[in-house]
Design a protein that fits this description.
Length: 395
């Protein structure tokens, strides 16, 4: 099947299509990484070298996209100390992250809030609203309470319109920002159908696009299926979390779909072989649905394996995921890239979660990552051709 893609965007920014991502009319496939910790670490100038080290090592391994947090609600250090009140020191930490990303040619996916309590999350928003006298009963009121939604929209606006003190460029005009993310791993335990979350996604996605039409937008989903295609629920790892991969990602303002994958956590007690087979089904079904139903690019936005399971086993697992990603990417570009969890610099023991990868200390893992980066980069030039009218065609 031959599809035509027109160049639509300038200044190095990215657009989605039903084949994948385009940058200035050229296809973009990537290998990337997660580094949630960057803003927090960079809020201390004495530790900013760790951000630099991570970007330098990631760039050397060919990693071209980084996903990180643009939130820190309450706690210490907090980006947002209380609703609408921000710590300039922490914001400058995020400014520095963007500045360093520019230097190393790494595009950023920035997430606005957490589903979980870490770094405050939606629970902190609910607590703020409760202290302000709002009638709230649980964390899922985050999706429906008018005051909480105002808090969240205000945070979005504050981040999107931020003027970077290092570059002098507003975030919404920053070409190295690839995309915004509405929430890290949204869940709604009070409505397993996905309908409550869907209403919130529609509302907040429209708001983001109303103030920033320059950047892509994704939800931050793990990929759990809901009521829109009931038979797909059998793909879930035995439970539901109140999301619907299909209906949530069909919201027109959402530019690409994401999935996360942790069979070692989701399927405790299952054998390595059973977890591997789950992962194969998980990726295949979402790739099929992204290509045939959503008609949007798909990104494996989190995957990894704990080092306690063994470094050889970790390398084998990452390598197998990369092979599947590459194989799907060769079939039209819907599978556009992946983000391994997670890359860290040396001297960050307090941040270790068992999944950390320190590239300079893990040559075998770094080699696997580097080979995937080169493979995806080569595929960009092999898989697409440009005719005399500057139209991108499948080769």
């Amino acid at each position: 099947m031959f599809l035509l893609l027109e160049a639509q965007f300038s200044q190095g920014r990215m657009v989605p299509s039903n084949l994948g991502f385009l940058v200035q009319g050229s296809p973009f496939l990537f290998n990337g990484f997660n580094a949630y910790w960057m803003m927090k670490v960079a809020s201390d100038p004495d530790n900013r070298h760790k951000v630099t080290d991570a970007f330098r090592e990631a760039s050397a391994a060919g990693l071209t996209v980084c996903r990180t947090w643009a939130f820190g609600d309450g706690g210490d250090p907090a980006l947002q100390i209380s609703p609408g009140v921000y710590d300039e020191r922490v914001f400058q930490g995020l400014d520095f992250v963007i500045f360093e990303a520019r230097k190393y040619g790494v595009r950023l996916i920035l997430s606005f809030v957490n589903n979980f309590d870490d770094f405050g999350g939606k629970a902190q928003y609910v607590e703020w609203a409760k202290k302000a006298g709002a009638n709230v009963s649980g964390d899922d009121d985050f999706y429906t309470n008018p005051l909480i939604k105002d808090y969240y929209r205000n945070h979005i606006k504050r981040v999107v319109t931020r003027l970077n003190v290092f570059t002098g460029v507003s975030y919404r005009d920053e070409a190295m920002i690839m995309a915004w993310e509405l929430m890290n791993e949204p869940r709604c335990q009070t409505d397993y159908s996905g309908a409550t979350l869907n209403g919130w996604v529609q509302e907040m996605a429209s708001y983001v696009k109303s103030i920033d039409k320059n950047h892509l937008l994704e939800i931050g989903m793990e990929g759990f299926y809901g009521d829109s295609i009931p038979q797909r629920k059998q793909v879930n790892p035995g439970y539901e979390i109140g999301t619907d991969f299909i209906s949530n990602n069909l919201v027109k303002e959402i530019d690409f779909a994401t999935i996360h994958a942790y069979p070692d956590v989701w399927l405790p007690g299952k054998s390595e072989d059973e977890q591997k087979k789950f992962m194969e089904r998980w990726m295949w079904n979402h790739w099929e649905d992204a290509r045939n139903i959503l008609k949007k690019p798909l990104v494996i936005a989190e995957f990894g394996k704990r080092s306690k399971d063994g470094l050889v086993e970790r390398d084998l697992y990452i390598g197998s995921i990369y092979r599947d990603i590459y194989r799907y990417a060769t079939s039209g570009g819907t599978m556009s890239g992946s983000l391994v969890w997670q890359v860290m610099a040396q001297g960050m023991d307090d941040y270790h979660d068992g999944y950390e990868i320190i590239l300079s200390q893990s040559p075998s893992t770094a080699g696997i990552i580097s080979r995937q980066s080169h493979a995806m980069n080569a595929l960009m030039s092999q898989f697409f051709t440009r005719d005399n009218n500057n139209i991108i065609r499948l080769a």
